[in-house]
From TrEMBL:
PANTHER family: HIGH-AFFINITY BRANCHED-CHAIN AMINO ACID TRANSPORT ATP-BINDING PROTEIN LIVF (PTHR43820:SF4). Belongs to the ABC transporter superfamily. It holds the Pfam family ABC_tran. Coiled coil: none annotated. Keywords: Amino-acid transport, ATP-binding, Nucleotide-binding, Transport. This is ABC transporter ATP-binding protein. One of its GO terms (molecular function) is ATP binding. It comes from Actinomycetospora termitidis. InterPro entries: AAA+_ATPase, ABC_branched_ATPase_LivF/BraG, ABC_transporter-like_ATP-bd, ABC_transporter-like_CS, BCAA_Transport_ATP-bd_LivF, P-loop_NTPase. Residues 4-238 form the ABC transporter domain.
Length: 239
């Protein structure tokens, strides 16, 4: 049984059919990447999983149970945590306060484990440690992205949904973000990753799916898709 399974999922915005019969699965412990052009339906897929959008038809299970009727806030409590595109950190709060907010679902907020988890976020992202008392809104784009990931980890997710974590970042930050994604996964967090940066996304994916206009057109191990000439032509800027 996979941790997350979508079967023949359709989602629309009014008359715009954004997802057309999406079937995919995410195994516990894996990194699964979704790649595809702008408008292919990647963000829509993420929002459907996190509960921000409802299915028109199809099925979706998490840990073997129907997820479609579970409210979005309860999905967070069940371990599904999304880091949205565009980050969405709290600009008026300090780095430390933002991390605190990420742990709002936990009952152990005064415990040593909670502060240990905060320190772990600083180990992943040393730049945040230096800026722990700085307000989020004054951080650079890359630092805000790090904070958004650190904040999501404070909820102790079982399934982390990362939407375009490398978007708009300088190259040195991109490498760091992907390195940390692999580290987080090695510590046992399952990851569903949406990326425009297809080479990186396929490079670290155990399994990957290609979306085109709301449909899955290819799937396979990341390394297999990375080596495929048609994928290279279409998505990897290799000719
Ligand atoms: P991008 O990389 O540009 O974010 P994406 O693969 O994430 O692309 P989606 O954002 O999921 O694509 O969009 C899928 C389709 O749904 C597109 O045709 C898009 O125009 C449409 N769409 C997305 N959001 C809305 C919305 N709020 N209202 C109407 N149509 C929408």
């Amino acid at each position: 049984m996979s941790l997350l399974e979508l079967h023949d999922v359709n989602v629309a915005y009014g008359r715009i059919q954004a997802l057309r019969g999406i079937t995919l699965s995410v195994e516990e412990g894996q990194i699964v990447s979704l790649i595809g052009a702008n408008g292919a339906g990647k963000t829509t897929t993420m929002k459907t999983i996190s509960g921000l959008l409802a299915l028109q038809s199809g099925s979706m299970t998490y840990d073997g149970k129907d997820l479609t009727k579970v409210r979005a806030d309860l999905r967070v409590r069940q371990g599904i945590c999304q880091v949205p595109e565009g980050r969405g950190i709290f600009p008026g709060m300090t780095v430390l306060e933002n991390l605190d907010m990420g742990g709002f679902v936990r009952s152990d907020r005064r415990s040593k484990e909670f502060s240990d988890d905060q320190e772990r976020a600083f180990t992943y992202f040393p730049r945040l440690a230096e800026r722990r008392n700085q307000v989020g809104g004054t951080l650079s784009g890359g630092e805000q992205q790090m904070l958004a990931i650190g904040r999501a980890l404070m909820a102790r997710p079982r399934l982390l949904l990362l939407d375009e974590p490398s978007m708009g970042l300088a190259p040195q930050f991109i490498q760091q973000i992907f390195r940390v994604i692999e580290e987080i996964n090695k510590e046992g967090v399952t990851i569903l990753l949406v990326e425009q940066n297809a080479t990186q996304a396929l490079g670290l994916a155990h399994q990957a799916y290609v979306l085109e206009t709301g449909e899955v057109t290819r799937s396979g191990p990341g390394s297999e898709l990375l080596a495929d000439p048609t994928i290279q032509d279409a998505y990897l800027g290799v000719s």
